[in-house]
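Data deposition worksheet. Section B asks for the primary sequence of the deposited chain exactly as it was used as input, without tags or linkers unless they were present during the calculation. Section C holds the resulting structure in token form. Section D is free text for depositor observations; keep each observation to a single sentence. Incomplete worksheets are returned to the depositor.
Section A, Depositor: J.P.
Section B:
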Amino acid sequence: MSNATTSRPAQNESDKMKQGVQDAGEKVQDLAHKAGEKAQDLAHAAGQKVQDAAHVASQKVQDVAHAAGQKAEDATASLGSGLKTAAEKVRENAPHEGMLGRGAEAVASTLDRGGDYLREKNLHGMAEDMTEMIKRNPIPAVLLGIGLGFLLGRTLRS
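Section C:
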């Protein structure tokens, strides 16, 4: 009987060890699960911060582009006003009679029309007009582009 009684405490010790190992395994699993959740939370928070920073940067780029576009529009309108002023000066200072007077009036009228066009259309309207012209005349537009590219290339190479 002593053999049976000695094996029972050993069995109990073995069961306790198994239970301890099982409990430790469960705790490790719990810790691993919690660590995984924490890592997911941190990754989500980091992703959100990156997304927010990208949105802020995008908004700033849009603001700068809008401001630059507005300045370009203002400069175009100012150029249009300058052309109108130049037309008035030509009319004031040029002769009013004869061939020279007719030529001066033609120049002044052209400056007037150009100034009106620039003030009314601005860059956006000019771009639309250019697009329409290219759609109506694609081959001459391509040839003009090739010619300008050739001249620009020669100029930059020199």
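Section D:
The chain has a mean pLDDT of 85.
The helical segments are 2-93, 98-136, 138-157.
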